[in-house]
Structures are given as C-alpha cells and as structure tokens.
Amino acid sequence: MVQTQRDDGRIDNRIENYTKFWNKDLKKEESADNDKRLDSYTDVVNGYYDGATELYEYGWAQSFHFSRFYKGEAFLASLARHEHYLASQMTLRPGMRVLDVGCGVGGPAREIAQFTDCTIVGLNNNDFQIQRARKYTQKAGLENQVTFAKGDFMKLSEQFGENSFDAVYAIEATVHAPTWEGVYGEIFKVLKPGGVFGVYEWAMTDDWDPLIPEHKELAHQIELGNGIPEMRPLRLAREALKTVGFQIEHEEDLADRPDPIPWYYPLEGDILKAQTFWDYFTVWRMSWSGKLVTHSAVWVMELLRIAPPGTSAVGESLKVAADALVAGGRTKLFTPMYLVVSRKPKN
C-alpha cells in the first residue's frame, strides 16, 4: 500500500491500519498478534497519535498525561503541578541539559523548562506532533530553551551519543516501548555519570493477574485504546531499571495515595464532580453526550476529508480507553503514575 504523507506530517493509511493490530475480541487474540505489535511498535504508536493527537488536545490540552487532584484544584493547574513534582523530585536546576523522552506536543517540556530554567530537548518519533510542538513553543517564546528532535527512543545513544544529558525524564511514554529494558538501557547510556532519570510509568499493578480473564481483558482494552503494544506489571519496570544499571532512589505509585479526588475523575464524565467552573466543559467531553458530539463531528470531518481516514476509528478506541482506565483506576489494577527516580552511578 502506498503511504501518503500530508503536509502536517501525518500518514493517512497509518491511521487506518492502527486498529488492525488488535482483535477486539480477546478470545481471538493469539501470541502472534502480540508479537506483531511489539515488532511494529513504531507503526502502532504513530498510527495512534496521527489519529489521536488533535482529540487529545481537544479533551486534555497540551499535556497528555494524568495527574493527582486536590479538592477545588483546576484541571490545568493539576497537570502543571504533576510536572513540577517530577522536576522537583529529580532536582532539576538551571543550566542542566535535559531530555524529554516521548514529548508529545511539548506541554510538559515547556512547563518544566519555565519551572526549572533548564534546557530541554524533546524527543518524538511522530512528525505531526513535532510540528505542533515547535509551533506552540515558538508562540510561547521558548524556542531557544526547548527544542525538538525526531527519533526512536530505542536508539537514543545512536542519535545523541553516550553521556550527553544531565537528566532524562519520561511522562507516560515509555510504556509504548517494546521492552522496558531496551528503552531504559538507552536512557542509561545517554545520561552522564551521576545523571538522574525520572519517570511516570503506566503499568498494571502488582494486584493484576493475567491468569484472571477479567484482568487480562482490562489490559487488552487499555492497549487497544491507548496505542500500547503490551501492558506489563509494575514489578517488571522496577526490575528493568535495576537490570540496566540504575540505582533507584525513590519509587511510589502515586495513584495509590488516598486522594479524595481520584486521578481518573475527568474520564468519568460526571459534570457534578468538576472541581472548578472552567472544568465543566472538560468533564462534559467525556460524558455520553460529549462523546456523541465529538464522534459525530469527527465522522463528518473525516467524510469531508478534513480529518484523515481512520480518525473516527481511533476516536472509538479512545472511548474504549476511557472506560478501561476508569475501571483500572477503581479496581487499583492499573496506574498511570508509578513514579521512579533513579540515578546512573558515577563510576
């Protein structure tokens, strides 16, 4: 099939092919399907984000991650605080050269750069997102402090060279890697001796049991709805960090804190739970009526060729994702914020 790249960097048939990597019926899934997703992880991730990026921005602003909430805290303030917390745990300081692995459209990079006065390089393998990241960064006047590079996070040392960054962070991005050892190993290489790595990792918790059909189905729905080749348990992330040589200084599943407002509340679509007046619209978008309006609009845009073919199908997968993530949060079987701060030994 001929690949057609649009002026905005998206490849049309890559979006169309995204859902073909999964059997929606788990009973029909075979190990070969999982292996294919892992082998084709760049196509899986790029197909997903070619179709989902604008939907993410519509529903989630420019920072594509979850966060904890205080009572009465605005949605955008919560996202920024989550980014500040990671930066403070890593002790990022002015003058540091920092790599953002899987930077999306650059929301966290811009926020952390302003919060810490460090210099950030955002890495992304998706042309569409890079174009948008650069546009937003220029608009913010941060183009001399925050830059973006296209690349594969499984080949960081090949692109940047070893010992080239003072710090590296990843916010809900390395779950897209075919193996944690592979991506963590590359991060280890590009860090200077004594450098710090901070990550908010997506993982199934230690209560998750793949031998329980309902647990396996939940992981499958999270994979399909979020462009993830394979969901893995939290303990494997911890083991992978140690295996590649990191010394873990702090680790905590922030989703396990007894917060009165759960991290997944914006996905529930219950406008009565909105924390501020300005958040009503954010929460409404995930209600049944909000989803209906969004899907109908995307369908019309695709029909008129304003949106690439396959965008509505990716939008449907996002609805699967929302339901699965809420279920995973309520049952404590899934976390989007397993925080680990690790360091590369000085010698």
Description:
There is one protein chain. The termini are far apart. This protein folds into two domains: 14-61 and 262-330, no CATH class; 75-259 and 334-344, Vaccinia Virus protein VP39 (Rossmann fold), CATH 3.40.50. It has a seven-stranded mixed β-sheet with strand order 3-2-1-4-5-7-6, sandwiched between helices. The mean pLDDT is 87. β1, α5 (107-116) and β2 (119-124) form a beta-alpha-beta unit. The protein is 46% helix and 16% strand. It is of the alpha/beta class and 347 residues long. The protein is globular and about 55 Å long. One of its GO terms (cellular component) is endoplasmic reticulum. One of its GO terms (biological process) is ergosterol biosynthetic process.
Give a topology summary.
Layout: H1 12-17, H2 31-39, H3 41-60, H4 75-90, E1 97-101, H5 107-116, E2 119-124, H6 127-139, E3 146-150, H7 156-160, E4 165-171, H8 180-190, E5 191-204, H9 213-226, H10 234-244, E6 247-253, H11 265-268, H12 280-284, H13 288-303, H14 311-331, E7 334-343
Parallel strand pairs: 1-2, 1-4, 2-3, 4-5
Antiparallel strand pairs: 5-7, 6-7
Helix pairs in contact: 3-14, 4-5, 8-10, 9-14, 13-14
